[in-house]
Design a protein that fits this description.
The protein is α/β, with parallel strands linked by helices and about 325 residues long. Helix content is about 35%, strand content about 15%. The strands form 2 sheets. A 10-stranded mixed β-sheet has the order 7-6-5-4-3-2-1-9-10-11. Strands 8-12 form a two-stranded antiparallel ribbon. Strand 2, helix 3 and strand 3 form a beta-alpha-beta unit.
């Protein structure tokens, strides 16, 4: 989950598919050997990130709940005062699956489909017959606080109000709305206004967040970047004020803001260097250029015709040297 909340500085760890972070002994393929960072490297990275001021660990991937290394990563984060989250995309959940995470995960994201999704459920395989209500009942019984993740498309735009009511009725702490790239500018504006209205209706009961920025509520101003760079050069703990999330990809590459961010701005690779050391070098050699890219994107976002968009995608395009407009969130 992307938590765009003030003072949340996120370290985002991507677990490899068929990760070899297992408590049982099983033969590993060459693909596993290549992709698997292993728990020790990630534990060191979490400790370093905490020392850099990051206070939230988000473990993501194909299905993080299947990664037996997850509790160890969360425990390390807790040792350093960080909160933890992950997300499940699995259609079926069981009490034993979640019992071992009860004191590891502070917030569990649960993806749901629109209210009409059940009409197609009979055509799916038996393992996906568990309804959203049944899945969420298992989560509630586990005692793990949870967020509902709702994918917003042109077809599901009319279901936003239902999604908020459903999330509140199910006892969710948050509704995270993820817009797709297919939405038009008018649809994004409608989504923004609807989320603002629903947030007022649900105030005190449910936090509603839309994964997009509005050109009049950008997270920083160009002048903030110069101040941030000066503070960063004095103390690395300021890194997360702008670079959040800090992303660890499956192969160990560390990038700012989003998975696949242009490699010219990569911090390094955990297989070769500790996070603390590569951060020192990044601050000295890359922070200035990063601020220039960020400043140009803030200006373009402020003056764009499109009202709402995916700021991280804009930054990625600008960093890669592409044409930047105000794209919708993807």
């Amino acid at each position: 989950m992307n938590l765009h909340i003030p003072d949340v500085r996120t370290l985002e760890v991507h677990s490899a598919p068929w990760s070899n972070l297992r408590s049982t002994c099983r033969p590993s393929s060459m693909l596993e050997e290549r992709n698997d960072l292993g728990v020790p490297l990630l534990l060191h990275a979490i400790a370093d990130a905490a020392n850099l001021g990051y206070n939230f660990l988000n473990v993501v991937g194909e299905e993080p709940l299947r990664c037996p290394g997850l509790p160890a990563l969360c425990r390390e984060a807790h040792l350093h005062g960080m909160l933890t989250s992950t997300i499940t995309r699995s259609a079926a959940l069981t009490a034993p699956q979640l019992a071992w995470l009860r004191f590891s995960v502070d917030l569990l994201g649960v993806e749901i489909e629109g209210k009409g999704a059940g009409r197609n459920r009979r055509r799916r395989s038996p393992r996906t017959r568990q309804t959203a209500e049944q899945r969420l009942a298992v989560v509630r019984d586990s005692g793990i606080p949870f967020a509902i993740v709702f994918s917003l498309t042109s077809a599901s735009l009319a279901e936003l109000e239902w999604a908020a009511e459903f999330a509140a009725a199910q006892g969710a702490a948050m509704l995270q709305v993820r817009p797709s790239a297919e939405l038009s500018d008018d649809q994004m504006a409608t989504a923004w206004m609807t989320v603002e209205w629903l947030g007022g209706l649900q105030r005190g009961k449910l936090v509603i967040h839309l994964d997009a920025v509005h050109r009049f509520s950008l997270p920083a101003e160009p002048g903030d970047l110069a101040s941030w760079k000066r503070d960063l050069e004095r103390e690395a703990r300021y890194l997360g004020e702008i670079v959040s999330p800090l992303v660890i990809e499956e192969d160990g590459t560390v990038t700012p803001l989003r998975y696949g961010f242009p490699r010219r701005f990569a911090f390094g690779n955990l297989r070769q260097e500790r996070l603390a050391k590569m951060t020192e070098r990044w601050i000295a050699s890359q922070a200035g250029a990063f601020c220039e890219v960020y400043g140009r994107v803030l200006h373009k976002a402020r003056t764009a015709d499109r009202m709402c968009g995916d700021l991280y995608r804009m930054l990625s395009l600008e960093a890669a040297g592409g044409e930047v407009e105000m794209p919708v969130a993807g």
